[in-house]
Amino acid sequence: MEKMSKIKPRSMEDYKKVSEEMEIILDNIPGLVFFKDTNNNFIRGNKGIADAYNLSKEELKGKSLFELHSKEQAQAYWDDDLEVIRNAKPKLNIEERWETKEGVRWLNTNKIPYIDDNGKIKGIIGFSADITERKLAEEKLEESKAKLKILNDELEIKVEERTHDLGERVKELTCLFDISKLIDESNTIDENLLQKIVNRISLSMQYTNITCTRIIIKGQEYKTNNFKSSSWKLSADINDGQNKIGLIEIFYLKENRISYYGPFLQEEKNLIDTIAEILGRSIKRKQMEQKLKESEEKYHLIFDKSPDYIYLTDIEGNLIDANQALIERVGINLEELRKKNFFDFYAGKNVEDLMNKFSRIINGEEIKNLEVKAKNIHGEEFLYEVNAVPLKKNGNITQILNIARDITEHRVAEEKVLDLARFPAEDPNPILRVSNEFVIYLNKIAQNLFNVKVGDRLPFVLRNNVNRVFSTNTDFEFEIKINSKFYSLFITPVKGTNYANIYGMDITNRKKAENEIKEQYEFLSNVIKSLTHPFCVINANDYSIELTNFDIDDASDTKNAKCFVHIHNRDNPCTDTYPCPLEIVKQTKKSVIVEHIHYDEDKQPRYYEVHGFPIFDEKGNVSKMIEYNLDITERKKVEASLRESEESFRTLAKNANDGILIINRKEEFVYANRRMSEITGYSVDNLLALTIKGLSHPDEFKKVKDNFKRRKLFLGNMKQ
User: Fold this and answer.
1) Which fold has domain 308-415?
2) CATH number 3.30.450.20 given to 533-636
3) H or E stretch including 536?
4) Which of 54, 159, 314, 405 is surrounded by the fewest CB atoms within 10 Å?
5) 15 beta partners
6) What is the pTM (predicted TM-score) of this model?
7) Superfamily of the domain at 31-130
8) Nearest-CA neighbor of 399 among 318, 304, 344, 335?
């Protein structure tokens, strides 16, 4: 019998994969997602809401709010639900208190009615996002404003302008330039180079005549001729990116003015930190060069000893190099092989298709599992499967690395297996051979299913489709229902004859699974569409948007839309201005959070916190990414206002003519300005180590204590 394997069954795995991916999406949405019926009972919820109640998703099913909250709080939630059910309209942006064991949390909740195909309300779908941090930030901002207002009433503003000596800055920049030049002109970071750097650093300091310098690298010292340790020191660690490998130290031989870094300027501290960073990077680079050399040696070892065929060509197909395995297979030495082109050994018939593959490689695409028929110098043919990788030099593709495995024997074995295929009579699915009127052959399964035997007229359910196949001389596949079961039938004409073969398959379970998954998919789609913030699933290979809850313009479907076009209005992926979450997720295979700036319809900037979550294929590679964007513009504004308020407070306090002490609820000093240090004679650190009693005279302590109690309402609410 011909073509016994024509049917290509549709696997249930595709439908299961969709369901699993949708479940992953719900469980990783940054909020609480739930579906409740009209009796206030949970039908379904995501992992977020189940975890919030310390329940599993299965345990949450059937629970009522009155079992999970106090009567008052549950009633408030239920009243909102009833409003949505009665009005059949969504209720959005509900700000709710949620009493938990850890304390009060604030939620922003959206509730929408869930309406079936008959227009009947089956319940509500809800989504709650935690906005506690925003609430706390707003409260903190109000507290900061109150502190600033009090200080504005009591303090006089004094602004100190600190000027920088331009000549000193030029010296520092020149020093960095000279050191970078010394490193670039040297092949190694040796004793001579480090001594030159030591001498150059000393010349960049403000007081060069009293400056000495020392560098310590892995226990070895390099220092200026006048080196001498003193208590006036500035230092910076040298790191190779992971570990501390050395130290730069600068000493003044006598004391000068005192600042935060002793007698040194902030700019001098920055200079030494930068030099230490340059040295660390340079040493790391040298180590990487050594590792690269070792890697190249390993490459050549693998190249020479591999049993697979490994060869290198230029972009025109000329052979550049080949390993011993390929040299032996083609029967020619390497010197002669380098005079040949790849196509000199090609024995296949479809040269045009191979040239097309070759062009794709030259354009930067990796080709995997390409079957190639080749011949050696004796004309003997062999078959191999090759992975071809383009190699770049200075940003341009110049060579192609090919790694191939001989599959000649494997292919022979496959053909033997096909020859041993089972006879149709043993097939558990219905198989028939028919003319345009009669049954010529059928197996036992087909005989019982259609209630016919050899020589009978065609069953009525098959006649029209069989005649269609004979009239068009093309294959035809269709589905029918027989005795409460569904079957997929494939009819194919046998060339050169007046009969056709019919191959059937029982797809009852698949149809049932399709209906169940369709219902679940519709439910999950409704949940995603109810989310108030931008959400999408992005294909990791081509940046196309496969699923989203926002409208996409100028596209017939989401798969034609690219994320960088419709989210950022760009022609290319986000690689320069913003970090691309998809590229980070593909590289790390982990979730990521980055911040982007998008522009609204009025071209005003909006700040978004972009969350990326990987979805893996069966090989463990990132195939898709869930992305959701949280608008954090208001939070950014609150944070900016808070920083401005705090900075104003610090400036006022620092430059006040009056002494300032801030006391917390425990009667501890948490802040003291410079003027208070001058008044009391204590350093700021020593003041903060004291209490009210320790700072007060014994005769005045009771009066100070009483005064503190009277103002405790204000002071107790000021936070450190």
Assistant:
1) Beta-Lactamase (3.30.450)
2) yes
3) strand 535-539
4) 159
5) none
6) 0.37
7) PAS domain (3.30.450.20)
8) 318
